[in-house]
Amino acid sequence: MTRSLLVALVLLLAVSADAREYVRSGRVHRAFLRSSGYPHGRPGYVADHQRPLCAGGSDSVVNLHWQLIAEAQVKDRAEWTLCRRLRALVAQFDQQWRVTP
Known about the structure:
The protein is mainly α.
C-alpha cells in the first residue's frame, strides 16, 4: 500500500459521516465569548475551532479557542485545503462503493 493511499484512508476514516455537512451555531459562538470573559470579542484575536468541523470537530464551546488573527489566516488556508481534499476523497469513496440495486 502506497503512503499516499494509506494517508487518504486514515483521513477518510477520521471523518465521520456527520462531518460531511456541518453548521456553525451563533449561540455556541456567543457562549464561548461570554465564557472566555470577552463577551464583545477580543482585540487582535478570533474565535477559532481547534479541530476543524470538516474533520469531525464539534461546534461546541470546548472546541473553540482564541487565536491571533495572523495565525488564524494561515491555519484557515491549511484547513480549506484539508477540507477540500477530504470532500473529494469522501465523494470518490462514495462513488466507488455505492451499492446499486
